[in-house]
Design brief:
With 190 residues, the protein is of the alpha/beta class. The chain has 6 helices and 6 strands. A 6-stranded parallel sheet has the order 3-2-1-4-5-6, with helices on both faces.
């Protein structure tokens, strides 16, 4: 079994402009690809887990999502940080129409995407991490039994809730989160 780092997409990998559905609107945050290459070199599988209710809401379709995802995967590959998987939830409990309008098990804070990835990619949840920018990412990670949950950015700062209650680490960005993970990682025999 492999250790993994689960990555939320919007607000962690790319700037969260709200419902990013096209390559034009996808803006990598600084240092993300380099930080991800460090994780791969340290032996982690990279898995994106992203809520995409923009699909349920009709802002973009699954075809557009896949076009963007294929492009994004190429950027990671070319940076020496290939993604082991990209999991997405197209649902919303009360927006849009069925089948997208549903109470699913995959929309974070539910852990469905993480559990499925662990099963399909042979990942060891107990030695894996999640990096996200919302408390719902942290909750999904805890429900999936991950080793630690890391919150980046300030998108939850207006919630009035104390981050420490929801995550194991809180900091500026993915680069800093990766530094924290690597400091906790035993050197692997190669
Ligand atoms: Mg996010
Ligand atoms: Zn879902």
């Amino acid at each position: 079994m492999h250790p993994a780092v689960f990555l939320d997409r919007d607000g962690v990998i790319n700037r969260d402009h709200g419902y990013v559905g096209s390559i034009d609107a996808f803006e990598f945050l600084p240092g993300v690809l380099q930080a991800c290459a460090q994780l791969v070199n340290a032996g982690y599988r990279l898995v994106v887990v992203t809520n995409q209710s923009g699909i349920a809401r009709g802002y973009y379709g699954e075809t557009e999502f896949h076009i963007l995802t294929e492009w994004m995967k190429t950027q990671f590959e070319e940076a020496g940080a290939p993604l082991a998987g990209v999991y997405y939830c197209p649902h919303h409990p009360d927006k849009g129409e069925p089948p997208y309008r549903t109470d699913c098990e995959c929309r974070k804070p539910m852990p469905g995407m993480l559990l499925r990835a662990c099963e399909e990619l042979n990942l060891d949840s107990a030695s894996s991490y999640i990096v996200g920018d919302k408390y719902s990412d942290m909750a999904a990670g805890r429900r999936a039994g991950l080793k630690a949950t890391l919150l980046v950015g300030d998108s939850e700062s207006k919630s009035g809730k104390e981050p420490g209650q929801y995550c194991d680490w809180h900091g500026d960005d993915l680069g800093k989160a990766v530094g924290w993970i690597l400091a906790k990682t035993p050197i692997l025999d190669k």
